[in-house]
């Protein structure tokens, strides 16, 4: 039997692998600037020429991009499941918002489950910050707007995905982030239009979800995440049907229908 020699791994290969892992796990995020070459070389304990070679190889793969003024950045397009034109197309369609909620119900329930099982102390601190920011939006009812609240809500759910330590779930949620923010804003708007106690309902739902993850109660976390999305689904479904009934009523009472009604009354 012929046995070949094991080729030693080049230093640049190891650097490429480390940077790829950092991108994949979310340590380096889309659009984020890499630390200065000297700083990164010292952190890794490698020579600057080896680091430079690794960065060039990642740039060739499309994972990094250089910008005018210097520096390398993680490619912003990474994990973009939806392009900007498609997002614009989907944002104005109620049925697409409904479909996204159905998708979120399964996706975020799993994120919450794994976050409760795997979240580290650092993850929990990050999640706590995101949760408190969201609660601050709820508390400042008079001054906050739906856009700020939607962004805070989306960041809270993104923090849960990061704590799941499942890179597929994380990058799926990341890719949906822009659409997710819009979906949350539309959902919140419809929820608040329905009933005044909705804000306290949402606060309670997020509290239960947050505490289940922090306390490591995985099954409860999955349950509360699904329950939260289902609540929004039910309200939006009722709102959609209410809007459709109103549209039908307005069509029946339009100018054309009014004329037909007058004609019928004269004939009889």
From TrEMBL:
Name the record gives this protein: Pyruvate dehydrogenase complex repressor
Sequence ranges of Basic and acidic residues compositional bias: 241-250
GO molecular-function terms, A-Z: DNA binding; DNA-binding transcription factor activity
SMART domains: FCD, HTH_GNTR
Record keywords: DNA-binding, Repressor, Transcription, Transcription regulation
Region feature Disordered, mapped onto this chain: 240-268
Leader peptide range in chain numbering: none
PROSITE patterns named in the record: HTH_GNTR (PS50949)
Domain HTH gntR-type: 9-77
Biological function: Transcriptional repressor for the pyruvate dehydrogenase complex genes aceEF and lpd.
InterPro entries cross-referenced by the UniProt entry: GntR_C, TF_FadR/GntR_C, Tscrpt_reg_HTH_GntR, WH-like_DNA-bd_sf, WH_DNA-bd_sf
Pfam families listed in its UniProt record: FCD, GntR
CDD domains, alphabetized: WHTH_GntR
